[in-house]
UniProtKB/TrEMBL annotation:
Residues 49-444 form the Amidohydrolase-related domain. Carbamylation allows a single lysine to coordinate two divalent metal cations. This is Dihydropyrimidinase. GO terms for cellular component: cytosol. Keywords: Hydrolase, Metal-binding. The keyword Nucleotide-binding does not apply. The keyword Translocase does not apply. It comes from Dysosmobacter welbionis.
C-alpha cells in the first residue's frame, strides 16, 4: 500500500517545512516534493500541519488500586487517545495480585490489553508490591523492552509506598541496567499530617483534597528523589509536576547538570484547584487527582517551564475513574463525603494535545516546535522508542496527525469523549484538532472522528464506550531511552 500525504506543512521538534510524505505500508519511506507514484491513496493536507503522532508518556488504563480492583477505564476505551492525535500510549503496569512485575507485564500485554488497545502501546513498570525479587527484576524488564519504572513516594500504609531504602535499592540497580526511574513525588508524612488534621477538625469536603496536599510536600519529595537518583547514577523522570516549588527543584537540578527530566500534565496547565469547590461533591470529586490542581500562578509557571525546558514532557496522566467509583467518596456511616475515600485521577488521554494546542500554541504561549517536542518527541526519546515514534523522518512508523488549526469548538463529552461519563475540560473553548490520524499507515481518524466501531463494553459491572477492534501493538523500548543523554550532562 503506497500512500501520499501531500501539500501539508510538516512540523517536527526541530523545524517546519512544506513537503509531501510517501508511506509504504507502515513506514515513512520518502519526504520531499514531486514524489513518484503510483499511489494507492492520496491524502490532501492543504491548510493543515502534519505532526508526528502523539506519544503519551503517562496513561493509566485498567489500573489496579491497592485492593487489585481496576479503577480506570478499560483498554477498549483507548480509541479516545487516537481521536485526540495520540498514536502511542505509554501505560503503567502495576503488579497483578500475587505476581511479580515481569509476569505482570506479560499478563497485561497478553491478556488484559490483547486485542483491545487502539493506539500502539509501550509500558512503564510500576511497583505496587515490593518484594525480595523486585530489584532483581529490573534487568529482565529492561531486556523485555520496559526501560522505565515508576515508584510511589506517597501513599504510606499501602503496598504502593516505597520508603527511602527501597527507593535507593531500585535506583542503584536501575542506573546499572539502563532503566530510567520515574517517581510520584509527594512526602507521605506531610500528606498524613495534613489529612489527619483536616479530619480531626471536621473537614471532609473535596476541597480539602487540595488543601491537604501542599506544594512543599511535593517539592521535598522531588528534591529527595533527585538527590538519591544522582547519587545512584540513575536517570530520573519526575512525573506530573504540578507547582512552582516542585518545578524549581527540577530547574535547579538540571542547571547543575543532574540527570533529571520533568513532566507536567494538561490539567495542571489549564485547570485550577477551585474546580474542587463545586457545591455538589460528586462533581467536585471528578477533579480529585494527585498531586492536586493548584493556582493560576502555578499554571503560568508550568507554561514557562515547558518553554524553557525546565519541564520537558506533557503527559496526560489519563486516569478516567467512572462516576460510580468517584462516588466511593460517600461515607455511609457518617452520611457525608470524605475526600480521602475518593479514588484519585482525571481522564485526559483524548484531550492532551487539544488542550496543549489551544492554551499553548493558539494562545501564543508555545511554538509548534515546542508542542511537538513535549507531546511527541521527548516522550518517545525517554521511553527508548525514538525515532521509530515521536518524529517524522524516513524509516519512522507512519504515525501522523493532519492537524486542522482552524477548527473551533467547545469541549463536550460528545465531541471530546474520555472513556468515562464526564470530561474534566468540559465547557472550555478548543482551537485546532486532529482532523486525520494515521497509525502505522492506516487512517484511523477522519474529520476528527475515530473510524472504528464503538459499542458498549462492560467491565467490573460498569458500561463504557469501547472499540471492538484494536490496531495497537506493543512497542518495546530500548535501554536508557534518554537516560544516557541525561547522564552525560553531569
Ligand atoms: N498518580 C498517578 O500518576 N496517577 C493517578 C494517581 C496517582 O497517584
Ligand atoms: Zn502518580
Ligand atoms: Zn451529585
Ligand atoms: Zn499517573
Amino acid at each position: 500500500m503506497r500512500t501520499l500525504v501531500k501539500n501539508g506543512t510538516i512540523v517536527t521538534a526541530e523545524s517546519e517545512y512544506k513537503a509531501d510524505i510517501l508511506i509504504v505500508d507502515e513506514k515513512i519511506t520518502s519526504i520531499g516534493t514531486n514524489l513518484e507514484g503510483p499511489f494507492d491513496r492520496i491524502l490532501d493536507a492543504e491548510g493543515k500541519y502534519v505532526l508526528p503522532g502523539g506519544v503519551d508518556n503517562h496513561a493509566h488504563f485498567e489500573a489496579l488500586n491497592t485492593d487489585g480492583i481496576t479503577t480506570n477505564e478499560p483498554y477498549a476505551t483507548t480509541w479516545v487517545a487516537l481521536q485526540g492525535g495520540t498514536t502511542t500510549i505509554v501505560d503503567f503496569c502495576t503488579n497483578e495480585p500475587g505476581m511479580n512485575l515481569v509476569d505482570s507485564v506479560n499478563y497485561r500485554l497478553n491478556v488484559r490489553a490483547k486485542g483491545k488497545v487502539a493506539p500502539d502501546i509501550a509500558i512503564h513498570a510500576c511497583c505496587n508490591d515490593f518484594t525480595d525479587e523486585t530489584v532483581g527484576e529490573i534487568k529482565k524488564l529492561v531486556e523485555m523492552g520496559v526501560p522505565t519504572m515508576k515508584l510511589f513516594l506517597a501513599y504510606k500504609g499501602t503496598s504502593l509506598y516505597m520508603d527511602d531504602s527501597k527507593l535507593l535499592a531500585c535506583l542503584e540497580e536501575a542506573g546499572k541496567q539502563g532503566m530510567t526511574m520515574m517517581v510520584h513525588a509527594e512526602n507521605p508524612d506531610v500528606l498524613d499530617k495534613c489529612r489527619n488534621d483536616a479530619a480531626a477538625t471536621g473537614h471532609y469536603e473535596p476541597k480539602y483534597h487540595y488543601m491537604t496536599r501542599p506544594p512543599y510536600g511535593e517539592a521535598e519529595a522531588v528534591s529527595r528523589a533527585i538527590r538519591f537518583a544522582d547519587a545512584m547514577h540513575c536517570p530520573m523522570c519526575i512525573v506530573h509536576v504540578s507547582c512552582i516549588e516542585a518545578g524549581e527543584e527540577i530547574r535547579k537540578a538540571r542547571a547543575e547538570g543532574k540527570a533529571v527530566i520533568g513532566e507536567t500534565c494538561p490539567h495542571y496547565l489549564v485547570l485550577d484547584k477551585h474546580k474542587m469547590d463545586h457545591p455538589d461533591w460528586h462533581i467536585a470529586a471528578r477533579w480529585i487527582c494527585s498531586p492536586a490542581l493548584r493556582d493560576k500562578e502555578d499554571q503560568d509557571y508550568l507554561w514557562k517551564a515547558l518553554n524553557k525546558d525546565w519541564l520537558s514532557i506533557c503527559g496526560s496522566d489519563n486516569s478516567g475513574i467512572p462516576q460510580a467509583q468517584k462516588n466511593w467518596g460517600w461515607d455511609e456511616e457518617h452520611q457525608r463525603c470524605d475526600f480521602r475515600m475518593v479514588p484519585n485521577g482525571c481522564p485526559g488521554a483524548g484531550d492532551r494535545m487539544n488542550a496543549l494546542w489551544t492554551y499553548g500554541v493558539a494562545a501564543g504561549r508555545m511554538t509548534r516546535q515546542k508542542f511537538v517536542d513535549v507531546c511527541c518527541t521527548t516522550p518517545a526519546k525517554l521511553n527508548g522508542i525514538y525515532p521509530r515514534k515521536g518524529t517524522i523522518q524516513v524509516g519512522a512508523d507512519a504515525d501522523l496527525v493532519l492537524f486542522d488549526p482552524d477548527y473551533k469548538g467547545t469541549i463536550t463529552l460528545e465531541t471530546n469523549p474520555t472513556g468515562v461519563e464526564y470530561n474534566v475540560f468540559e465547557g472550555l473553548e478548543q482551537i485546532g484538532r486532529a482532523d486525520t490520524v494515521l497509525l502505522r499507515g492506516s487512517v484511523v481518524v477522519e474529520n476528527g472522528r475515530y473510524l472504528g466501531e464503538v459499542t458498549e463494553v462492560v467491565a467490573d459491572g460498569i458500561t463504557y464506550q469501547g472499540c471492538t477492534s484494536a490496531n495497537g501493538k506493543f512497542i518495546p523500548g530500548k535501554p536508557y531511552g534518554l537516560g544516557y543523554d541525561l547522564l552525560k550532562r553531569s
